[in-house]
Amino acid sequence: MAAGGLRPSMSDDARLPTSCPGEEWCPVTATASLVGKKWHPVIIARLLEDGPLGFSELESEVDGISSKVLSESLDDLGEKELVDRTVVNEKPVRVQYSLTEHGESLEPVIVALGEWGEEHLVQAEEGSASVV
């Protein structure tokens, strides 16, 4: 069993390289750094729900995100091997985004975040969430 009582489910050679600040490697911190940016979990959730999407489709599914931030987020998720970018050779040529195997394996984490939010959060007047 790994540190903190968490048992790894993938072989060492299939895992993504990450690091943690401090002296000991921490899987919670490393995972949070992968999906902890504002738009990353929402993008992953939309790709889990809807499957592969083009840039414009994804932009309309992620309410409130700008094109620039979506592009930067997709690049970051691609570098972290969570999202795959595929050029589809149709007329006109388009790009489609999908989750990698690592990205798909985040489904229980994204579902748990949503369930916790449904149970413990209410939307505040200005659009932010508050714990109830």
Automatic annotation (TrEMBL):
InterPro entries: HTH_HxlR, WH-like_DNA-bd_sf, WH_DNA-bd_sf. The keyword Signal does not apply. Residues 26-125 form the HTH hxlR-type domain. Pfam families: HxlR. It comes from the Archaea. One of its GO terms (molecular function) is DNA binding. Keywords: DNA-binding, Transcription, Transcription regulation. PROSITE patterns: HTH_HXLR. SUPFAM superfamilies: Winged helix' DNA-binding domain. The keyword Ubl conjugation does not apply. This is HxlR family transcriptional regulator.
